[in-house]
Amino acid sequence: MKAIIQRVTKASVTVGEEQVSSIGRGICVLLGISVDDTQRDADYIVRKILNLRLFEDENGRAWAKSVMERDFEVLCVSQFTLQCILKGNKPDFHSAMPAELAQPFYNSILESMRSAYKPELIKDGKFGARMQVNIQNDGPVTVELTSPAGPSDPKQLLKLEKQQQRKEKTRSKGPSESGREKGSLRSRQDPSASSGAEGDVSSDREP
């Protein structure tokens, strides 16, 4: 399963002359379901969509809050063309899940998001329709997600997810106390040595 997630100030879907949905600040998600996708892929994508830290916190620190933590909206649009495989210059979509199977699967993903978040803040387009999607990207910020092809054992998947969460927490904490102490000691030993702080580029900087 593939998802393109864009941070937006507003987004809307129009079919013909009718606007079928719109959101203010939040994220717009283009979702492509493959013929091989299972509930495991859906669970992964839903969890990532709702927990990606794409927004600033109350102090203006970037990449600190998720859409759920900010009470922002989500606009989800089914996008089978994300499963495109090129044959020369011609797009081929045989890897996309057939519409008669994809529609109930897609609807179940929406229901999972509504169950995990506030249902009134989850909007979507019109499955199978020719849509005009208007996106005002904020940043611009665009993130591509692909559900992992890996072990199907639930215990192993949980273990891998916990490992990833620990890595993310470690990155968010920044330098350790011992690291700062070592830097201070080096500075005292060699006054000309630089800690590199002046040239540091913060990961919190807007793209």
TrEMBL record:
Keyword Cytoplasm: yes
Basic and acidic residues bias (residue ranges): 156-167, 178-189
Top EC class of this enzyme: hydrolase
Enzyme Commission number(s) of this protein: 3.1.1.96
GO terms assigned for molecular function: D-tyrosyl-tRNA(Tyr) deacylase activity; Gly-tRNA(Ala) deacylase activity; tRNA binding
Annotated spans, Disordered: 141-207
Keyword Chloroplast: no
Localization annotation: Cytoplasm
SUPFAM superfamilies, per the entry: DTD-like (SSF69500)
Main location: cytoplasm
Family per record: Belongs to the DTD family.
Cited PANTHER family: D-AMINOACYL-TRNA DEACYLASE 1, D-TYROSYL-TRNA TYR DEACYLASE
Protein known as: D-aminoacyl-tRNA deacylase
Organism: Fundulus heteroclitus (Killifish)
